[in-house]
Every structure is written in structure tokens, then in C-alpha cells.
């Protein structure tokens, strides 16, 4: 494994070198998590306007902290040479594009393996590297992945399908990138032989959204879009209280008994319709409509903090819907340092989520803010053996950009 040079030694991934060429979230967020866990991450950006994530104001500071920016025209002849040289010392290469964009331009997996036999290559795209070629080459974002995978058809109200936000398809994809890349790395380190991973965003969403799909595929059952409530169980969903919303997930015998007592339907418990030990209050159950109506009425009459506490004491999973304003001051957020402040490259303060998860022995760390476009071009090229003169020449020709 190659050794990172410019970042401090920390984290479980210290010594791992990740290179990526991708924009926005799906590919980059995977590299980002690895950067937070100690990997040396090189972010390749084009030489004209860089990653479109740079158009955001604050989120880019979170999504690109701990990274190094290399601005390189990969597909020019000389840029390709630089890229292949860079790949020689990388462990993982992640790219996201409209179908097999690298292979189309002659940068095939096989060529990459000629330069680094154990390289783990992750291709991220909307629809995969092969299949119906008209679809394969299409642009894709979260919304299109949710639409094509059937995920979108499950969320929202019966009249209006709704995207699960924010950017669920992108962030789920990034988790699949991290997991599969590290799985392949485990094997590559044992065998010395790399891997190529074909991640289609719609397939990520198909896998993540298959819970109710299994009922359809195997028994033809189609649940209507349930809006703020659950498809087939009472007491699950987002309910309006006197002064806020409660997110409730009612399940389990003692929990059902406690709720029925509170909503004035305790007499149902232990009957033939709801025998003791009933764990699930199905929406097609005998008194489901009445139960749901009474839950709604009861919650509407209750202050949300009070009901959350009472339900929690009964081992019912319930949480009031927290607003952004409430989060930073909540004692639990404070105790776990869920938010943190760090310095941006230009010395300003930026606030955002801390590094998660919390590793006990080798914690993550924030060692720098988001780099400016091409800020690390020179040092990265020097590391892989380019002289000052050659770097200057490449910059003059516009093959690289340095800041
Ligand atoms: N050097 C030279 N060329 C570069 C380059 C570099 N460093 N980085 C990108 N390019 C090229 C790309 O190959 C592309 O060329 P093409 O249009 O001829 O294929 C062009 O610059 C534009 O880059 P791209 O990042 O693909 O921008 P786009 O606006 O055309 O498409 C996406 C953006 C996200 C829609 C597209 O990349 C995509 O579908 N990606 C896969 C799914 C995905 O990750 N979606 C975003 C989820 S957050």
C-alpha cells in the first residue's frame, strides 16, 4: 500500500491512497468518508471550472474537507500520462460519468491494471457500464435514479410521488462505493489482483428500496403510497401533536398494550381480535381504523415533549421531529459533539457535522478545509516524480492547473 505524505497520520485508513474523478455527491462522498477516516484522497478536477460542487456555498466545505485537489485534463495525451502515473501508486480509483466514459476514451480497466495490477476501480454511473446502450450513456442524478429504480413510486401521497430528500440516491450510492471498494481492497491485498466495480445508481436504489417490492414480486401485493404514515401497520408514521410533530414507530406487545390504554381502547387488549402478545397492529386488522383515529386524536391533544417522554418510558420508539434550530443546543448533540467547527482554507470558521462513526482506537480527524481548485497539483505531481520544469510546461499548455 502506498503511503500518504502530506496529511498527518491518523485513522484506520492511514496509508490508503484514493484517487477520484467525479462531481457532486455519489462518487465524491465515498472518497470524503475515506478522507475523514484517514485516507489520502486526491480529487481530480477538470481544468476549466472544476467540480460543480464548487458552485455551492457551504456544503462543499463539508463534502471536500481533508481532500487534495489536482486540476488535470485527463483525456489529453499528456494529461493521460500524468493520470496513469498517478494511478501507479493508488489503491482505489473512483470515477463517475455517463456510462463507460473512460473506456470510450481508451482508458480501460485493463490499461489501468497494466499500470497497477492491484488497483481497485469503481465506476459510478446512473445505469451501469453495459446494458441497453441508449440508457447506459445517459446523464443521471439522484432524482433519475429514484425514478428508474421504483424507489420514487413508493414515496409521497397517492396523488403525488415525492423524492426522498436530500439526495438520498447519491448518498446511498456513496455508501455502496465505500463498502464495495473496501471489500475489493481486502481481496486485492491478499491476491495482488485488483477489481473493477460497476455501480449503477438505479441498482443501489433498487436494492435499498426492495422491502415492499418483495411482496409484489412474490405475491403481487402493491401497497399504495402511504404519505406520512406506514403502508400496513397502525401507529407508524409522523403524527401531529399540540405543538409539533411526533415520529412514532409502534411495534411490540407491551408497546401496543400501552398505546391502547392511553388512547382509551385498553379494553381491546386480550380479546379475540387483539389477544395478549399481539406484536403488530396491522392496518387490515379488525379495529385498525378506530385505533388509527384514536392515536391521531390523542396525539393532537398532547404536547410533543410530554408524549415523547411518556412513550419512551414505555419502550415505544418515538421522537419528536427536531428542527434545525433545536439540534445544536440539544444536550445529546452537545455531549457527543455531533457538530464541530473547523477552519476553511482561507481561515474562516465553518460549522458542520463531526466525523462519524466514532472509532475508539483510530479516530478520524479534520486536518484541512476544502482546497482551492488545483491547490495541490504541484505537490501531487512532484510526489509522483515530475520535475519543476515539467510541471511548469504542463501548466503552460493547460494540461494541468495550479493555484
Ligand atoms: N479532464 C478532462 N475531461 C473531463 C475531466 C477531466 N479531469 N473530468 C470530466 N471530464 C469530461 C467528462 O468526461 C465529460 O465529457 P463528456 O460529456 O464528453 O462525456 C465532461 O467533461 C463533463 O463532465 P461530467 O462530470 O460528466 O459533467 P456532466 O455535466 O456532463 O454530467 C453527471 C454530470 C453527474 C450527470 C454525469 O457525470 C453522470 O451521469 N455521472 C454518473 C452519475 C452521477 O454520479 N451522478 C451525480 C450524482 S451526485
Quickly describe the structure.
The chain is α/β, with parallel strands linked by helices.
Give the C-level CATH assignment of the largest domain.
Answer: Alpha Beta
Q: Find the count of extended strands (DSSP E, 2+ residues).
A: 12
What is the N-to-C succession of helices and strands?
EHEHEHEHHEHHHEHHEEHHHEHEEHHE
What CATH architecture of the largest domain do you see? Answer: 3-Layer(aba) Sandwich
* The CATH H-level homologous superfamily of the largest domain: Crotonobetainyl-coa:carnitine coa-transferase, domain 1
Name the poorly predicted regions.
Answer: none
Description:
This protein is α/β, with parallel strands linked by helices. The chain folds into two domains: 17-208 and 339-401, Rossmann fold (3-Layer(aba) Sandwich); 236-240 and 245-320, formyl-coa transferase, domain 3 (2-Layer Sandwich). It contains 16 helices and twelve strands. It has helices spanning 26-36, 59-63, 77-88, 101-104, 109-115, 133-136, 142-149, 168-191, 201-208, 213-219, 253-262, 288-300, 304-313, 331-335, 377-383, 388-396; strands spanning 17-21, 40-45, 67-72, 92-96, 120-125, 195-200, 236-240, 245-249, 317-320, 339-343, 349-353, 400-401. The strands form three sheets. It has a seven-stranded mixed sheet, sandwiched between helices. Strands 7-8-9 form a three-stranded antiparallel sheet, with helices on one face. The chain has a two-stranded antiparallel sheet with strand order 10-11. β2 (40-45), α2 and β3 (67-72) form a beta-alpha-beta unit. α1 (26-36) packs across α8 (168-191) and α8 (168-191) packs across α9. The longest helix is centred in the middle third of the chain and has 24 residues, at 168-191. The radius of gyration is 26 Å and the shape is elongated. The structure holds coenzyme A. The site of coenzyme A has 25 residues, from α1 and β5.
Amino acid at each position: 500500500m502506498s503511503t500518504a505524505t502530506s496529511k498527518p497520520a491518523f485513522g484506520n485508513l492511514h496509508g490508503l491512497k484514493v484517487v477520484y474523478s467525479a462531481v457532486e455527491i455519489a462518487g465524491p462522498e465515498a472518497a470524503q468518508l475515506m478522507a475523514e477516516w484517514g485516507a489520502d484522497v486526491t480529487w481530480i478536477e477538470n481544468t476549466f471550472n472544476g467540480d460543480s460542487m464548487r458552485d455551492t456555498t457551504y456544503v462543499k466545505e463539508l463534502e471536500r474537507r481533508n481532500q487534495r485537489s489536482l486540476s488535470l485534463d485527463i483525456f489529453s495525451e499528456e494529461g493521460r500520462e500524468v493520470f496513469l502515473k498517478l494511478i501507479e501508486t493508488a489503491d482505489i480509483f473512483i470515477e463517475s460519468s455517463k456510462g463507460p466514459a473512460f473506456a470510450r476514451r481508451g482508458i480501460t480497466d485493463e490499461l489501468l491494471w497494466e499500470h497497477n495490477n492491484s488497483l481497485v476501480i469503481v465506476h459510478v454511473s446512473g445505469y451501469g457500464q453495459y446494458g441497453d446502450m441508449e440508457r447506459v450513456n445517459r446523464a443521471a442524478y439522484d432524482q433519475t435514479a429514484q425514478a428508474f429504480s421504483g424507489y420514487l413510486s413508493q414515496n409521497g401521497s397517492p396523488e403525488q410521488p415525492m423524492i426522498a430528500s436530500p439526495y438520498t440516491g447519491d448518498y446511498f450510492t456513496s455508501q455502496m462505493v465505500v463498502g464495495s471498494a473496501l471489500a475489493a481492497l481486502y481481496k486485492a491485498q491478499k491476491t495482488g489482483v485488483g477489481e473493477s466495480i460497476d455501480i449503477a445508481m438505479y441498482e443501489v436504489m433498487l436494492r435499498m428500496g426492495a422491502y415492499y417490492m418483495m411482496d409484489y414480486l412474490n405475491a403481487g401485493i402493491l401497497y399504495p403510497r402511504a404519505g406520512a404514515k406506514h403502508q400496513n401497520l397502525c401507529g407508524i408514521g409522523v403524527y401531529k401533536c399540540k405543538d409539533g410533530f411526533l415520529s412514532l414507530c409502534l411495534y411490540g406487545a407491551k408497546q401496543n398494550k400501552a398505546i391502547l390504554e392511553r388512547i382509551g381502547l385498553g379494553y381491546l387488549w386480550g380479546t379475540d381480535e387483539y389477544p395478549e402478545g399481539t406484536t403488530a397492529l396491522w392496518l387490515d386488522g379488525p379495529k385498525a381504523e378506530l385505533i388509527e383515529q384514536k392515536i391521531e386524536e390523542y396525539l393532537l391533544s398532547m404536547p410533543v415533549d410530554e408524549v415523547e417522554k411518556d412513550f419512551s418510558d414505555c419502550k415505544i420508539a418515538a421522537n419528536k421531529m427536531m428542527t434545525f434550530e433545536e439540534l445544536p443546543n440539544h444536550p445529546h448533540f452537545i455531549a457527543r459533539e455531533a457538530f464541530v467547527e473547523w477552519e476553511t482554507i482561507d481561515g474562516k470558521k465553518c460549522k458542520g457535522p463531526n466525523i462519524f462513526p466514532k472509532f475508539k482506537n483510530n479516530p478520524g480527524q479534520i486536518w484541512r478545509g476544502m482546497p482551492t481548485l488545483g491547490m495541490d497539483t504541484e505537490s501531487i505531481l512532484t510526489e509522483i516524480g515530475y520535475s519543476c520544469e515539467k510541471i511548469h510546461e504542463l501548466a503552460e499548455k493547460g494540461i494541468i492547473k495550479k493555484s
